[in-house]
Every structure is written in structure tokens, then in C-alpha cells.
Amino acid sequence: MRAAKPLQGESTVTELRMEPFGAMPGGDRIDLYTLTNERGTTAAVTTYGARLVKFERNVNGTPLDIVLGYDCAEDYIADRAFMGAIVGRHANRIAGGRVTIAGRPYQLEQNTGSKKQNHIHGGTRGLHAHLWTAQPVDGGVSFTTVSPDGECGYPGNFEVRVTYRLTDDDALIISYRAVSDADTICNLTNHTYFNLDGAAADSVLDHTAEIFADEFTWADAEALPDGRILPVVGTPMDFTAPHRIGERIDADYDQLQMAGGYDHNWVLRGDIAPEPYSHLKKAARVTSKKSGLALSCYTTQIGMQFYTGNSLAKHPLIGKGGREIQRRSGFCLETQFFPNALANPHFPQPILQMNEVWEAETVYHLEDL
After folding, report:
1. Catalytic annotation on 191?
2. Distance separating the N- and C-terminal Cα atoms of the chain
3. Tens digits of per-residue pLDDT, 194-226?
4. Options 128, 334, 361, 365, the catalytic residue
5. What is the model's pTM?
6. Count of CB atoms situated within 10 Å of the CB of 279
7. What strand order describes the sheet that includes 225-231?
8. Residue environment code for 189-200, b if the CB has 16+ CB neighbours within 10 A, otherwise e
9. 334 is catalytic
């Protein structure tokens, strides 16, 4: 696995504030770090799961937080939707939780699927459930953790560092670095749910999305790709030109009917992102006429899972301000390796060899329409 060159974005963070946010069941303190740039835009990240808790910008003189989530750490601990979290060692799904690494089979924890037969997001003790160690850095905060050998079935002691930086042009840069003392799997992403009309808004169906991809990976009723890479043209998966998210989300199309909406991996074309992010490729751009905001996603990764929160109301979730989080009230732009790649050898493989350093970058750039 080749290491991607990190992007060094210019940052003008004028304030870094740390405050207690809650406690782990055993009593260890959970902290919240808030970055503020010279424009007054803020991004807040907690040490529990290195989760993005807030991304807030002034809109017409009023602060608008575009990230779904909760008011305290204890609610994040109870969360089952991976709100704002860094997920891994393997983001997304693996059929049967079965993998082969360096010729040796491993059985990962089975924690998803109609019969709990598959693996998702690193397991119940994945990175989203770790208490990370925070360290202020230039323009941001670095979070580090170690996933021990055997955790959720993965081999190797896996050391991770994720750094959040906020720039002067309201870009949130997420930099990843991982290394293991044994061959293992590495496919990390951020699982934030965004709503450009604010965390209290009920829907993202009137948002408009553009995805810089001509192909997607077909997935079955368990959301597992079977190896097919299909063209988006002529299907409701075609976001090569901007479309309203709700325009075709319930179309009579097998992919949407099985997933209950969009929850699929797009194969990124590799369009070059604008300066100063030209080290990266364009992944997506989502806009809202109501708020007048646009969110662009740039990345070093090869794929992106576009998820429209179809299962958010499956179990009642009480979010920020005591409001119930509604179905399809957030969208995720999860940059990643393709799901279920281990079962499809022609997909790029998320194998991290012993002592090899893996690095990646994803940028969420918030701007006016």
C-alpha cells in the first residue's frame, strides 16, 4: 500500500480551547477541543473516538453548526450511528468478517448484517470507541491511539494518529497516519453526518449533490459489493451533474430499494482539486440553497461512500438540543478503499504491511454558494 503525500494546508487558528466533555464508564475523562479561526468558524473534536462534534460558521450573522451529534460524551458512548467518528481498522463492510492476510486467515468480529454475519467499521471496539490522546499542533490537534493485537480479530499492534486542522478559508483538513508491527488491514475514514441547513434541520433531501465519479461498486442487500464496477450513466447513481438528493432516492432501482436510499461507494475519477488543495482529488460537492452554503470534499483516497442517513430513525436518537434525529437528516462523505475489497481481489487492497507507514488526507471545505 503506497503512502499518500500529506497536504500541508495554511491555518490561521486564533484560539484552541480544551474543556471537559464527560467521562468513560470507568471514570477516565473525555475532553473536547475547539478550534477557532480568524473568521470565527469553529470545529470541535472530542477525544472519544476522535469524533467531529461541531463544524460551525456564521451565516447571515448567526452561528450555524452543520454537524449532527449530541450534547455530551455519554451520548456519544451510547451512539450506534458512528456520529462524527474515526472508524477502522476497516471502514465499511467485510463479508462474513473473513479475511486473509499474508496467506493466513483471520476471523473478524461479526457485528452487522441481517444475521450479524458480517463485519463493519472495525467492530464494536473499533477506533470509534477508543479514548484517544490529544496533543495540540500547529493549526490544530492530533489524536493518537493504539489498537492492540487481536482487537476485534485484527492482527498487529496498530498505531494511529489523526490530525484535525482548520484553515483560514474554512477548510477542515483531516490527516491520517498508521503503522503496525504485523501485516494487517488499514482502511480509515471519518463518519460525520452533515446537514448544511444546520444540525436541527429535518432533512437533506433538498440539498444538491455532485459526485466526481463515473462508476460505482454494485452492492447486494447486505450492502456488500460483489466485485462489479458499473457505470453511473442512465441510473439514479449518476451525480456527474448536480442533482437534488431527494430527486431519485426512492426510484424503482435495485440499488436504492435494497439500501433504502443512497449508501454506496463511488469510484473517484481523480479530478484535481483547486488550489491550495491540488495534491488531492475532487470527491463531492454538496450545496444548500436555503443556507447558501457549499461543502466540497477532496481526498487522496480512491473511493467515497455517499450515505444519506437512511437508518437514522431505526432506533430513536436524541441529538443536540434534545431534538430527535430524523431519517435522512444527514449525509456522509466517507473517503475510503472500496467496501468488501478483501473478497474481491481485483479491487485495490487495504493491506498494510508490517512497519509500513500509511498516510491519507481528506478535506471538507465549507464556503458560500
Report:
1. yes
2. 37
3. 999 999 999 999 999 999 999 999 999 999 999
4. 334
5. 0.96
6. 18
7. 225-231, 213-219, 263-268, 303-307, 332-336
8. bbbbbbbbbbbe
9. yes
